[in-house]
Amino acid sequence: MDDLKRKKRTCGGHRSFVKKTLGEALEDKDETEEAVIANEIEEAGVLRADIKAAIRLLEEALPQKNSESEANSEGASLNESTVSSKKSVRVRLPKLELRKFDGKIERWQEFWDSFKSSVDENPDLSEVDKFSYLRGLLKDQARDCISGYALTSANYKSAKEQLQQRYGRSNVIQKTHIRELLKLQPVYSDRDPSRLRALYDATETHHRGLKALNVEQESYSSIVVPAIIDKLPETVRLSITRGKKHDEWNMDDLLSELLSELELREEHWTPKPPRAENGNAKGDLRSASALIAKSEEERCAYCLGRHAHESCDKVSSVKDRKLVARRYGRCFACLSKGHVSKDCRRKTNCKICSKGGHHVSLCESKGEGNISASNGSPTMHVRSESRVVLQTAQGILKGAQNAARIRVMFDTGSHKSFVTSKVVRAAGLPVKRKEWLEISTFGKAMNDYKLRDVFDLEIAPCKGGEAVTIEAYCVGLLLKFEMSILSCERGKILTYGDFGSRMC
């Protein structure tokens, strides 16, 4: 680059010299011989041609370098202008929308502070514009309050005074906040923390409103705090007041305790599973009682009636029953579809002939007649010589580490299923979740409200077969009883596989 510039300067010097020489020659043309002049002109023409050729080569080589330097200079100037523009241009904020005031006095102070900051103290707006904005942000009773004022500059101040006189009285706002606190809707159930959260948020809103008015909370806590506590569910009320002097609480103390309890419940709360199209909840069985309900909903394999297979009157002979089972591809051992008796996982023997390979309704030991079974409710407690017989069965609990042989007690009146901590440790079951649960005895003589572990139990028959999964809450002890063997007539006691119908 420097070499090209040097050559260009040299050419410029030659050009100046030629011009100077020609000028001197023209001045002395009268004294110069004609032949000398002709030679000089010829030499000058050659030199001029050489100079033009050199200049053309220089101009072809210089534009690329000049464009790069110009681009760099333009970029630097652009960066400088961008930096300067960033300093002067502010960030464009989203459009600010003011909330309309509907005449509820407890919301007046919030509305007026926002309107005053955005409109009333804006120097770029005229009085008429401010009045127009004010009327547009009022509705219902508040708009009717100033409906008699015409939209003029002089009426803007009068309209503001009218609104302040009606809604800006601090003593009326205080009474309204306290009245709204006492009118809050109580929460009766603690299973959904969203209702507790709504109650807490409403209480917090009115409490902050009173604080904004510089109202001492001691002046109203003695009335409001007991009223708010009474609106809480019984379990929540007992939890936040246990072992504490709640009679001396102010609003801050109540809100602090309630917030701690609410956050704990929200942390361990599990939403209900979505409902399927048929109205049943998706997911695993919630309780062992669902297994009993499932067995009651099964239909007869022969006539599709709502009764047990062995109680069918429409297809009474064993021969006809086998024909129906074979026609519809049912297993002779369990009467289920999709497999044959040799591939059936059901290992329970017939209750009549004590042989395997066929269902009790297909047994030929008592001829072709109908084998009836009682559809009455199972007897849960039998009183005989001051002894109580419980409906139990044995099964295999499959755990993450190993399997454990357990005894299952069936209680059709229970809403939940339970498992002891001893069984959980033996099977090495992982905790599914934690959930608050209150267990009440008969007559509610004692309530046990704790945060309990929830487990998924996969239970299979001892003799092999299909396993079922239920959800159970962990407790320390279910009941104390003395094991004794009763003499029972063969075939009168249901096995674990028969109790659940499709459980094996």
TrEMBL record:
<dbReference type="Pfam" id="PF03564">
    <property type="entry name" value="DUF1759"/>
</dbReference>
<keyword id="KW-0675">Receptor</keyword>
<dbReference type="GO" id="GO:0003676">
    <property type="term" value="F:nucleic acid binding"/>
</dbReference>
<dbReference type="GO" id="GO:0008270">
    <property type="term" value="F:zinc ion binding"/>
</dbReference>
<dbReference type="InterPro" id="IPR001878">
    <property type="entry name" value="Znf_CCHC"/>
</dbReference>
<dbReference type="InterPro" id="IPR005312">
    <property type="entry name" value="DUF1759"/>
</dbReference>
<protein>
    <submittedName>
        <fullName>TNF receptor-associated factor 3</fullName>
    </submittedName>
</protein>
<dbReference type="InterPro" id="IPR036875">
    <property type="entry name" value="Znf_CCHC_sf"/>
</dbReference>
